[in-house]
Amino acid sequence: MEQRKLVTVLFCDLVGSTELAGVLEPETLRSVVLRYFDMARQEIKAHGGTVEKFIGDAVMAVFGVPVVHEDDARRAATAALDMIASLAELNAELETSVGCRLAVRIGVNTGEVVTTTEEGANQNLIAGEVVNVAARLEQHAGAGEILIGPVTRALLGGSAVVEEVGELSLKGKRDPVTAFRLLGIRPDTQHEAESPFVGRERELALLDAAFARPDGQPVTVSGEAGIGKTRLLREWLSAKEDALIGTGRCHPYCDRASLMPLAHALRRILDAAASFGLLTEELVSEPSYGVLRSGLLLDGAPGHSASSTYAAIAAVLARLAAARPVVLVLDDMHWAEPMLIDGITQIANAQRAHRVLLVCSGRPDHARTLPGRAVNLTPLSEVDATRLAAGLVELQSHGQPTLARVIDRAEGNPLYLEQLVAMLDDGADLEQQLPVTVTAVLAARIDALRPDERMFLDAAAVVGREFDVRTVEALAESGAVAALAELTRRGLVEPVSGQTYRFRSGLLREVTYQGISKRRRAQWHEELAPGSAGHHLEQAYLYRQGLGIRDDHTAALRGKAARALTEAARNAMARADLSWSENLGKRAIAYSTKDDPWWTEAAQGLGETWLAVGRTAEGSELLRDVMATAAATGDNLAYAHARLQVDSHSQTGWWFPAADTAREALPEFEAAGDQLGLARGYVRLAQEQQFLGSHRTAEQLLEQALRHAEAANAAPEHAMALGALGISLWHGPIPAADAVRRCRQLLATREHDVAIVTLNYPLANLLALQGLEDEARACLATADRFATGLGFAEAAVLAPLFAAGVEALAGRLPAAQRLLREAVQLCRAAGDPRLVATASRDLARVLLRQGVCPEPELLGPADASGLPPEQAADHLGAHARTEAAKGNAAMALSLAERAVAESLATDSPITRAITQLDLAIACRAAGHRATARNAAVRAVTWFDGKGHSVGARTATEFMDAL
């Protein structure tokens, strides 16, 4: 499928390649050009571009394919600049090794193109004039230059540092094109300014009002980068001396657990509580505190489950709030994972009756994803900006014209203003040296530092926005104590607590980091990566690769990074943090090939995660690759896992291939002591028995699956076994009241979110069939709430099916009909014919109860050959009721009798009762009232045996009507 898109095209070509060919031996020339291509590809990929093709010595890249981003022009321009910078580093090596240097020229242009929407398409990807103009701009550029077109220039806005080249007559263009020489890009990330604090009276009053009357609704402080969000919160919090305050900050990269910012904030609240003597032995011994100590406070991950963690946080905060008000602040929430945003909402909902206020801050582009009431920050007025500038001590030695210049350049942004004034205080001549962007201001300040100060700041930037002084000392070479004191005095870093410091702004840290050579970044990241620190190993490898270092050490780093990321992805999956697992898994695969010994494990982990989030085709394809590789290498265990997962998600009519696969794989898992494999295998065998209608056998198999899942500490498998057990408790021979007690016992000892979801859905139906509607709805609400943010595709598909069951049992047929139509669509989209058939039959029965004949295509043919007994019984019974409604009594009776016969091969009292009721309806249609009554009596008996009071009442009413 083709579309028109606004994309940015980049052309990069070698300058003087003909002359180079005349001085280099052909093999050497080829090696040099390939290294240039690798460098270009790496930088383009790093900024989200797609290499369209290599044309001779030229590289063509597209930004905006397959996905358009609002900053595609900026991405392309930044990639172009980075290619020039990386080439300089590559040239340093080439000059030493082969005695040559390379030069390139680059053209960048933006415009509308025709492109395919298929991801992975790599031929004829785009077409349009924009491509030709980009190529012509490149041809007009000089060595080491980047020329950009007018649309690109307009999209870059004030972030671009350019020189106007003028109008160029380009081949194939009737009108001249205005070109610009790109010299640099100013980062668009800005952060809050610091002292003195001026203005913001309205915002402070809003925060005070929320603090005085906490109602459980979070407050979101929203504003552009650098506008003063954090500064506002710091000022406001400084007046809350009696409150227990904790702050945490989100980050733009996923090298940590999703809830790490929440963990940081909670630790600080607990530290404050300890200082006030509130961290009593009674509190520490509470189960909620134990949940946090063994999970969130340990490593930022949600422990057994996210929701149990949120509930524990809410309980601990409520306990503390009884003594002092509590304020929990999360900054930079525009980088937050969905799990964290959902968690804030859940914690807030539990605090409506307590003195607990949750405050978030983020950029306005992401404000719609943040919870709570909004406090929006706008640029400072000219009056407030003047007050701020005048209040800075460093400005006192400068005149009014300089003050006006600073205020004008700052444009109401406190961070801009503070840093510009700091430049003046460092002795810069504002008129001669004033940078045109805050990035330039920060870079100039950093470059003015003494060598020991710069060394310390650089090392701190590699560690992160917040850093431990001892870690930085281990990286920096000397003078750490003196350097830290001077950097603190200059306002570049600030203390947090103890040996922990932080950069005064995220932008300052970014600019510092970008000023470090890639070689040193690689070295320091590697030093920071003992054991299996995936992020630092990954960065060390990427920088060495970007420098063209292709030695054994680089190769070893690639393997270490891939293995560490794979292990982290597995751990995230085991704890049901799917978004984190997918991110880590994709990164692990990016640094792996099928020839690598660790590829199988990395690919298997990512494939399983993709299956869990509903990317079934991609996950299955990747796992089939794992099967092929494992078969070739003799890795029987990996093969067994991959095949079982693929077959578990294969939708091939009524056949259940995963059970056969499980039977073959279980001896392999048993021999290896693979608890995860055993759990998966027994679940699949149990699901087969459920499909056949043998629920008692399924229960026995699921008890084994549970033991193995617990031993493997695998949340998804544990929840899957519990959910399947809930289904058999619902449909099987155990009386409903006993089944409910068993479900609640299981829920009382299992805290994983996914387990709470998978058990509450069948529990809701067990309660509903006993007529306990309110309790059933409470279970549905719990399951729906816990399912939010989990990311498991299966939960989203099954939710309306379970909810429809409750509505149908409660007699709310229009609501059940709506839910079932939604369920049919979702099951079809998921490609599961078994679930489609189940939802369709349920929908047909609901329609018939409303006096409406279901559409013929809903149930399909009446033939039940090949169906297992429970499914056949339901299928034939639904058709029998339909034929009865249409007046085809003989056909209805024949189908109903066959349905009853099939039901006797199951141990489900519900299935047997429903088929007897189907038979009763068919007999009534045929005029056999006595036979109909006898069938209804048998239905009542089966319903009563299960404790299905709603069904028993329905059958009794049928008899009374006779």
Automatic annotation (TrEMBL):
Protein's GO biological process: cyclic nucleotide biosynthetic process; intracellular signal transduction
Protein name in the entry: Adenylate/guanylate cyclase domain-containing protein
Domain Guanylate cyclase: 8-138
Pfam families tied to this protein: AAA_16 (PF13191), Guanylate_cyc (PF00211)
Gene3D superfamilies: Nucleotide cyclase, P-loop containing nucleotide triphosphate hydrolases, Tetratricopeptide repeat domain
InterPro entries: A/G_cyclase, AAA_16, Nucleotide_cyclase, P-loop_NTPase, TPR-like_helical_dom_sf
Record-level Gene Ontology MF annotations: adenylate cyclase activity; ATP binding
Keyword annotations: ATP-binding, Nucleotide-binding
GO cellular component: cytoplasm
Organism: Kibdelosporangium aridum
PANTHER family tied to this protein: GUANYLATE CYCLASE DOMAIN-CONTAINING PROTEIN, TESTICULAR SOLUBLE ADENYLYL CYCLASE
PROSITE patterns the record matches: GUANYLATE_CYCLASE_2
Matches recorded under CDD domains: CHD
